[in-house]
Design brief:
Largest sheet: 5 strands, mixed, barrel
Number of domains: 1
Distance between the termini: 36 Å
CATH architecture: 3-Layer(aba) Sandwich
Structural class: alpha/beta
Bound molecules: hypoxanthine
Strand order of the largest sheet: 5-8-7-6-9
């Protein structure tokens, strides 16, 4: 287990991105979760960098995570798009998870938009639903700030009273309504994975107040708040959580649902990004 963030590696990574994208002045960084894509038609591509060329990042191990950092210019400003994420369960190492947040902060971003695939626990959260994350429950049993609380020399005890920014959440809802499909909202619980949950665990999460469950997002949200960035998160519900759908869970089913939802989701995401850029 590597609990400590390597600050010199983070600086090296940020330098590599700055050198690769000399003309990019991003205000927002987006991390795309399992199966999420963003063709971003109409935007100017200002740069593209495989994760393997960013020191310390490494390539995602999971199918559906391409491992490419893109920079786009939109009419409302520049955005960094991390196509694919690293997860804690891949290497028990916080460095690749913190890297996009560090890069975002170093390059001047004011906010991060985190996306993920999740299992629906609340009754209405069926496959294909989109959930704007209102709050989270950290069931990882771990916190990325352990040993790293002074990461950005912010307060030692990071306040998580309002992790998910109210204005950004409201923008995502508005954009959804404009696009003819209103997202839900709810509480996202993060487990470490990589196994899916047992039905008993899902029942326990339900009683704790979780509406959806996944294996990501929460560490990045905590790190981003510690770094003083605004946070928004969107969960694409790809299956009913274990024991609720009557079938075993597979990653290929998760990816198939996100593929089927891609068109709707991509338009909402692109419009949401432009609107968010407009208020940062
Ligand atoms: N559980 C955890 N992670 C997930 C799920 C799930 O049901 N679906 C997609 N990611």
């Amino acid at each position: 287990m590597k609990p400590f963030l390597d600050r010199s590696l983070m600086e090296e990574a940020a330098r590599a991105v700055r050198e690769a994208f000399p003309d990019v002045r991003p205000k927002l960084a987006v991390i795309l979760g399992s199966g999420w894509t963003l063709p971003a038609s109409g935007w100017q591509e200002k740069g593209s960098l495989p994760y393997r060329r960013i020191p310390g990042f490494g390539m995602p191990l999971v199918v559906g995570h391409p491992g490419l950092l893109k920079a786009y210019g939109t009419s409302s400003g520049d955005v960094l798009v991390f196509q694919g994420r690293r997860h804690w369960y891949e290497a028990a190492d916080w460095n690749p998870i913190a890297l996009p947040i560090h890069i975002a902060r170093r390059l001047g971003c004011r906010a991060v938009l985190l996306t993920n695939a999740a299992g629906g626990i609340r009754e209405d959260l069926i496959s294909g639903q989109l959930m704007v994350v209102d709050d989270h429950i950290n069931v990882l049993g771990l916190n990325p700030l352990v040993g790293n609380a002074d990461w950005w020399s912010d307060p030692f005890f990071t306040d998580l009273t309002a992790v998910y920014d109210a204005e950004l959440r409201s923008i995502l809802h508005t954009v959804g309504v404009e696009q003819g499909f209103a997202p839900s909202s709810g509480v996202y619980a993060a487990v470490s994975g990589p196994s899916y949950e047992t039905p008993a665990e899902v029942r326990a999460l339900q009683r704790m107040g979780a509406d959806a469950v996944g294996m990501s997002t929460v560490p990045e949200a905590i790190l981003a708040r510690a770094a003083g960035l605004k946070v928004a998160a969107l969960a694409l519900i790809c299956n009913r959580a274990a024991g609720l759908g009557g079938q075993p869970l597979t990653h290929s089913d998760v990816l198939e649902t996100s593929r089927q939802s891609a068109d709707r989701v991509v338009h909402l995401l692109a419009a949401g990004i432009e609107k968010i850029l407009g208020v940062l």
